[in-house]
Amino acid sequence: MNTATASNFGVAASAGGPLLGDAEFQFLRDFVYRHCGIALSEQKRQLVQGRLLRRLRALGLKEFASYCELLRKDPAGELGELASAISTNVTSFFREMHHYDLLVEQLLPRWLEEKKGGGRLRIWSAGCATGEEPYALAMVLAEALERTGSKVDARILATDLSPQALEHACAGMYALDRMGGISDERRRRWFLRGEGRYEGYACVHQRLRELVAIQPLNLLHDWPMRGPFDAIFCRNVVIYFDKPTKQRLFDRYAGLLEPGGYLFLGHSESMHGLSDAFDLVGRTVYRKRVS
């Protein structure tokens, strides 16, 4: 088959796997955009085929048409697995450290002082992936509570669409070579080193688990929580979305944040020209305007 003919019928199958045809790829593009807000360009076709081949094998399906039919019949049941397959969950503990520095040095001390009369402190890790971000937030929160002796009702909500990522986050077990962002002092304080079959891993301390509530959530669908939140971390998530989806999401975040609450984005993300509800107050740090 020559190159022109192959282009007409889709990306050539690799390693004897099934072909992702034009009709199936267009269905997947429409489905993913509608349910996940992710716009897949034609350049992503080979990536989609390669990643979904593993999913087809896991389900015992022989062709992409069968997978598309599965999505038509049970979109909710397979959505999380599809999102896991096509997105890249790259995360680490204390990624973009300047955000945590702001929390430790300014925001947490101020919030705990303001709320010591009986208020609640709530932080949302939206798109928490495998849990490194919410557990890092829990470390600095637990340390602030201990340092001040505060009895404030403080909790962190961690959500993600991917069932695989959430399973990892709930387990709270991490390979030692993935913990480079954590200081030796924090490793000793907040992790238990695995032994036996868990050699080479460490488990998060029970105190961190008590501070973090992990739940599945699709950011494009209805949200069961009402807030208000003092801060929302949505880092390296909106990079996948188009402009209208970002605008809707930022408006919804503004509706859940306290007046003067903070929204943290990833290092390559910006709210410029997308929302009038926030002011830029630091590197990828936005503060909700107080009307």
From TrEMBL:
<comment type="function">
    <text>Methylation of the membrane-bound methyl-accepting chemotaxis proteins (MCP) to form gamma-glutamyl methyl ester residues in MCP.</text>
</comment>
<dbReference type="InterPro" id="IPR000780">
    <property type="entry name" value="CheR_MeTrfase"/>
</dbReference>
<keyword id="KW-0808">Transferase</keyword>
<dbReference type="InterPro" id="IPR050903">
    <property type="entry name" value="Bact_Chemotaxis_MeTrfase"/>
</dbReference>
<dbReference type="Pfam" id="PF03705">
    <property type="entry name" value="CheR_N"/>
</dbReference>
<dbReference type="InterPro" id="IPR026024">
    <property type="entry name" value="Chemotaxis_MeTrfase_CheR"/>
</dbReference>
<dbReference type="InterPro" id="IPR029063">
    <property type="entry name" value="SAM-dependent_MTases_sf"/>
</dbReference>
<dbReference type="InterPro" id="IPR022641">
    <property type="entry name" value="CheR_N"/>
</dbReference>
<dbReference type="InterPro" id="IPR022642">
    <property type="entry name" value="CheR_C"/>
</dbReference>
<dbReference type="GO" id="GO:0008168">
    <property type="term" value="F:methyltransferase activity"/>
</dbReference>
<protein>
    <recommendedName>
        <fullName>Chemotaxis protein methyltransferase</fullName>
        <ecNumber>2.1.1.80</ecNumber>
    </recommendedName>
</protein>
<feature type="domain" description="CheR-type methyltransferase">
    <location>
        <begin position="20"/>
        <end position="291"/>
    </location>
</feature>
<keyword id="KW-0489">Methyltransferase</keyword>
<dbReference type="Pfam" id="PF01739">
    <property type="entry name" value="CheR"/>
</dbReference>
<keyword id="KW-0949">S-adenosyl-L-methionine</keyword>
<dbReference type="InterPro" id="IPR036804">
    <property type="entry name" value="CheR_N_sf"/>
</dbReference>
<dbReference type="GO" id="GO:0032259">
    <property type="term" value="P:methylation"/>
</dbReference>
